[in-house]
Amino acid sequence: MKKQLHLQIRQIGNSRGVVIPKAILEQIGFDDHADLVIEGDRLVLSKPKKNPREGWAEDSKVIAAAGEDRLVLGDLMNEADEDWVW
What is the Cα gyration radius of the chain? Predict the structure, then answer.
């Protein structure tokens, strides 16, 4: 559903900006940051993308502490590979 608002561009220090109503920010789920993309004559705000590996270090410690960090497939030694020149 598209919602169109008419917002005034205001002077903010040496810059200019718009005030986005709190209800709109909450509806979209914005916190303290947003990504801004320029698409032709449009400014598009979106929620920042998380780093796909964010939290992996902490999660791996929890997995190791639970003893769940063993190799699933075991050691994959390829005996026939000894003829290969690396």
Answer: 25
* pLDDT tens, position by position, 4-34: 888 999 999 999 999 999 998 898 888 888 8
Listed in sequence order, the residues at least 6 apart from 67 whose beta carbon sits closer than 8 Å to its beta carbon are none
Sequence letter at residue 28:
I
- DSSP, residue by residue, 10-72: EEETTEEE-PPPHHHHHHHT--S--EEEEETTEEEEEPPPPPTTTTHHHHHHHHHHTT--S-S
> Rounded distance, CA 71 to CA 65, Å?
15
